[in-house]
Records
---
Amino acid sequence: DVKVTQSSRYLVKRTGEKVFLECVQDMDHENMFWYRQDPGLGLRLIYFSYDVKMKEKGDIPEGYSVSREKKERFSLILESASTNQTSMYLCASSFHRNTGELFFGEGSRLTVL
Amino acid sequence: SQQGEEDPQALSIQEGENATMNCSYKTSINNLQWYRQNSGRGLVHLILIRSNEREKHSGRLRVTLDTSKKSSSLLITASRAADTASYFCATDGYSGGGADGLTFGKGTHLIIQP
């Protein structure tokens, strides 16, 4: 079975802390994505990557950065967490660059106090 | 940017009835996909329909696509309590060279009453 694993299901952090959200996929997919999901706003794309060491901004990259040092791992970094970054974060991967099925992780629910 | 918009936002029906959800989008697409999300979990892919297809079936799911109206519908037949979930449409937002992942709508929350 294909699998996308997010390291933490629930996190509670304080304002100003640096936060790392890790995502690993075992399908040898080149494409990986980070979305955030908020009530009434749906899923919004933060960053994506089509290759190792490559990253592209999505719709809402402000306040976030990413790292893709290995093909299977895509990390989302909140350099200085703020309360408006409290959200559900969803990692996904795909085989096809822009048109294929996305495989999602279970999500990481982050609360920033 | 948000491309797909599902309608209705919420739907409650009795077990055994059919459930229909609609999705409208704005720009040309290569394909449209439907996903399901159980409460507090990740999204799971249900079905993909290409822009040159009009209808597609998968088990109890039936998806239609009308590119002239830029709309799609998802029909779940003979609903079960386990179908209770949120359903999202997603489009690839084809722009002849752009590559920015899938764009999701805000979802339809479906509740199946036992």
---
Amino acid sequence: EVQLVESGGVLVQPGGSLRLSCSASGFVFGAYAMHWVRLAPGKGLEYVSAISSSGDKTYYAGSVEGRFTVSRDNFQNTLYLQMNSLRTEDTATYYCVKETLRQDQLRSGLDYWGQGTLVTVSS
Amino acid sequence: DIVMTQSPLSLPVTPGEPASISCKSSQSLLHTNKYIYLDWYLQKPGQSPQLLIYLASNRASGVPDRFSGSGSGTDFTLKISRVEAEDVGVYYCMQALQRPFAFGQGTKLEIK
């Protein structure tokens, strides 16, 4: 059974830093690209970041570029999101998400989502 | 960056009736491999989002066949043939052609 378990969400002051972790199990972690998506209170889903299966390519939404860094440890089956210079507008539930591929290697969506971890940025 | 626009933002539906959600992208989502890189997701109340449709028209595993996706280029539609009470939640389209990906604003489906 595929499981994605996020951790690290806490209350932090504006300007502070935080590292989120996502522990993965039930699949070959190193074979799939992984993503972070967030849901702010009263808002819609916002795409945050992605990392390739090997970790050599990373991508960021404009709203977090230069402040957030995504990384992964394929030996520990763990995805990370380092969040610096946090702003009140970063307050959200952060989801760790797996991207899947069909047998013909075509991407076939973001098929597994964690339960999310809440980050609150407030003074 | 590609911008996604959904309509309507709110959709009250009577059980048993059909429902339709529109999604438009600021650029074509047609990949060089001829597939359309557009997904649909549903976030039910209190739950994490779930994948409904990928590559514009392919139902994900376990998704009921009352859900269907269509469209080409920049205009896409999610249709529910007969809405059931369990379909309530917020529906999102997402472009997956260019990274970073991007979601539409979401369409909240509620039961009348």
---
Amino acid sequence: KAGVTQTPRYLIKTRGQQVTLSCSPISGHRSVSWYQQTPGQGLQFLFEYFSETQRNKGNFPGRFSGRQFSNSRSEMNVSTLELGDSALYLCASSFQGSEQYFGPGTRLTVT
Amino acid sequence: GENVEQHPSTLSVQEGDSAVIKCTYSDSASNYFPWYKQELGKRPQLIIDIRSNVGEKKDQRIAVTLNKTAKHFSLHITETQPEDSAVYFCAAGSSGTYKYIFGTGTRLKVLA
């Protein structure tokens, strides 16, 4: 099976802009979770989707949002970008929510 | 709130020695504990996991132990090899909430 894919792999944006990241899970996986990875904070949970429904979310401001489509592909959006949003954004897919398999990530740089 | 503490933050061992990484979680509802290995510039990869109804699980040179009473779980790597060098993350979560809290990572260096 093909692994989890994320697009784009790299992105440079300026403060105040908005960005949309995409994640395609492993075929048959219906759960997609998103994480922010930074050197200082490690991996922090953003939100999890299953069958187009958000089942849980982390402690991030409302500028971070997501959605999931009927084919299980997921997108996350960050509006009004801040310098502190620079990070590696990882998505992970799983069959029902436990054993998670990560994508390669999208490296976002905000200038 | 929910928290996972991971120690040590860095660990250097000689090739062939054992390495132990420890994590403590705060949410008593946690029932699933995965471990991930992340090599430089690569994605985290699931290497082993344990559920709360099991005290120990082993897969070749890797083992994980869980003490639910103390809310501790540990990763044990025996006969370490240079290719074991990476950052290791523990995580704790509940299959009911689908939210996983990660530790801050341990950078393991295996010296040849």
